[in-house]
Amino acid sequence: MKLKIIIPCWPSYERAAQSCLRQSLVGLHSNRVDLTVISSKHCFLSTARNSGIDNSESTKKKRDTFDSDYYLFVDADTGFTVKNIHDLLDVGVPVIGGAYKYRTGENAGKICAGYWKKDLPGISESCVDNTETGIVKVDWCGAGFLLVRADVFKQIDFPWFYCGVIEHGDEAIEYGEDIGFCMRCKKAGIPILVHCGLTPELIHKQDTEQTINLKGESMDNLEQLKTNFISAELELRRNIGRSVEVLCGAANACIIEMQKRIDEQQRQLDVIRKSEKVE
To answer: pTM of the predicted model, to two decimals?
Structure first.
């Protein structure tokens, strides 16, 4: 089985997913998974996801061939294990996501998946509650840890992930690329599931005691590293300054010595000229 992991990366988070990948690669290969990892970078998240699938080789609405059996979309700030990946693969459905949760806002603590308002696809009415267990069928789910079988992309139009606007009365409601993907799936009759027992962790998160960075170090450690770096930089500048002073001093000494030699040669030349005149 061929699996491609696509990570839309931002510089501040890229190492997060890479760290989890390093821990997971051995486990995946040992289970005979032919794995490819794509770090897809683009200023638009929708384009980053789409280009990771086929390397932007075509803009045709319909595609027939894909290089993998499954595509796993992992946001660059999401922590996961090899078991998380196998948990999704073992379900064996076209589209299934992990149940990561909102951190802030009115939906804080709820799973990033849910249900649309009746007859208004794309406009969310409610989220999956964090008390849900097992595998739940939903109208939409986030793409932060989303497994998609290759045949799904054959059934829906390109761009598979896209942003848009829904006009409802006097409102214009924007939606993200993950909602756009789910809307295409629903239109094609492809069910969307979320695995409520699988909860990938956001690696960069605000806890009650400390903020965890990409390597699990506290911000205090990061501040100390920053302070150490600044101190090292200042010391380097001082050393460079001292070196320049030494070099300038040495150069001045050489110039003075050369001037003395020139003056001495000029004095000797004057003596010779005077003696020639006397003769």
So the answer is: 0.68
